[in-house]
Amino acid sequence: MAKRQAYSKLVKTMREGKFLFTGELEPKKMVDLSSILHSAEEMKKTGKIVAANVTDGPQGDAYTCSMVPCYLVQEKVGLEAIWQMTVRDRNRIALFGDILGGAILGLKNMLVLTGDHSALGDHQNARAVYDLDSTQLIDLVSKMVDDGTDLEGKEIEGGKIKMNVGCAANPNSNPREPEILKVGRKVEVGADFIQTQTSFDIDDAKEFLKELEKFNVPVLLGLFPIKNYGIAWYFNEYIPGVSVPKDLLKALKTAKKEYKEDKKKRNEVIDKINIDFFEPFIKEIQKTTKAAGIHCMAVHYERLFEPLLKNF
Amino acid sequence: MIITQQKNIEEIYEMIKQYSKILVAGCDGCCQPPRSINEAKVLAQMLELKARSEGKELKWKAITVLRQCDDRIAATTVRPFIEQYDAIVSLSCGLGVVMMNRIFENILTYPAQNSMFGGAENNAENSFAEYCETCGECLLGVTGGVCPMAGCAKNLSNGPCGGTVNGKCEVGGYIHECAWIKIYERLRKFNRLDLFTKYRPPRNYRIWSSPRFIDINKSYTNEEEPIKEEK
What we know:
heterodimer, A: alpha/beta, TIM Barrel, B: alpha/beta
């Protein structure tokens, strides 16, 4: 499809060809959003982070809706939000209504996701919705943006909404071909950009990015700097398909052991481990691929942004 | 066939403990595992024991019905016994239980089973499996014979989600096969990946909304019939 207008700073920056970074904010069960706003401020201070994802009930847990934190991050912090929207909890009526609400609040980016199944979350007996799938939600957003209508073709009072929409892609997928075919279909239906799941394997990431080039839309590669050994261990054990490299895992474990009492020193060592691993990784991606930038999923690890991004 | 699982005996007893004479009706229809005369007898004996342990006497008769979900068969088989009993316990799926309650309005029929799903018997895997969700809009012709409604925990129409790892589904702990990876493999084998990549717009869930009825006579014509307003 023809390129849609860039409504967001994110998509504008991507199209300018400037290598960029995005961050991630995760509202949990909270009415006090100060920690989220603090993280967003830290991201903004780096001057390198263009926008931040705000998650929508990750792992299927019941968390604060993402629309309100998105709005507050934009209004109070001045950092553009990437509104994550899953099809797990809302049918097409609720999705349409929420998207209109988000558009009124000035949200400019949506990242469309299927969403972890509610059977994995903290309300396992909930009825999962999945009225639309992620491709169909992109179709809905496209109709709202390009035609100013809902799925049935009924017009929106006030006209078209101004929003860019992104889709996810998984570099850890196996087999790879159906994933690529699926991403292609999402782009065809109207995705303006692609944001990938996390990758720890540089060769895999490069190969995947190469395969995505044919779709001719900007791609953000997902990376996950790891704040402590516990997270790394959890990732390795419980997130199938993603394995943390052995050396990285070992280094984090050693840091945990050696500086058990000295938190400050431990944090310094862990930051260095992450910088030593991810800085060359990012440089290699910047130098050898056509990726538009990096989506840095380091939730609540804002102190790493400044030292990690200072050489970019 | 309809796959059922028997409720625990306490739950069944709780429903019928107020009665002293019950008719326990098995079903020889498509219920699986079998819920016929022998199973009816065993259940009746268990209920009798349970009653006795509470110092009560429970009289019962066990029968079986060719198909409890067929009103004519159920009526002719069960009617001769109705007068002598206070309640009926049905070993049929929910269809039979509802049908018996519809036919015999003056006596309550209680379910002894939970109806799980419409399933197939997979002897190779020693399981009953839900291969079709009776969605009313069959996609099997474009999905290589694998159902994405019954096979995908998220009922997705456009390919696998990020929750599939090495062809296994995130729901259930990466044990069950991802229906969409199977669909991909089947279509690839038959050189029909064009069907995989095709965009499928939002489904029509109206035809999947309860309650559903089909006029039997209406299904046997090739003529267009005027759409009747639902009463």
